[in-house]
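Hey,
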Amino acid sequence: MINLSKVLTSKEAQKFKPLNKFKLYTNSLTEYEQYRFIDGWIENGGYIESKYNPDFGGDPYCCVWLYEDVIEVKGHTPEKWGASWWEKCRPEALTAALIDEKKVWEKRHILKIKSLSEDLHTVSKAVQVFGVNAKFPVYIENKTGSIFSWATPDKPTVHLSGAIPIGYYTTLSGSELTNSLKKELLACQEDAFTPNRDFSLWNEYEKMMNKKKS
């Protein structure tokens, strides 16, 4: 009979199939088993940092072999171990994810304000040239109602490239275009990170917080 106080290798754990939680040597996982471990982590709702933060450079929670030599998990397969480890890490990982995504949001927010400010400055210069009543071709994004792109009146239409949101073409006078961009800039400047809107794992986080309160 296996001694469950003993730390098992991946091979031993799959052979003996412990019924309860056991200690596992993480460095005994083969590369293929590591992939399966991560699959189990994800299937159970686990968070992958690089998916939401391209600049993430730390050790991902799901790659436990990078920061823990021995962990306590349950199950008979690498997938079950990954799922089990997410359950263990969930509170810490969700809190870290919230902080991480807030930083990413704020960085993008600063860039958005800068972009809108530059756009407004360019529009103001164009309106001085063509006049406040001149018709400027624009492309409006359906989802937000914001101006996705615009062109000067001497252009037949707006030039679009890259990922284009669903929207429609129309024209705005110079004054309407300027006022619209001013409103967008003001709204952006007044905006702030809102967890229940901007945090990708808000539902999981809310469940965790409600459980703590009860």
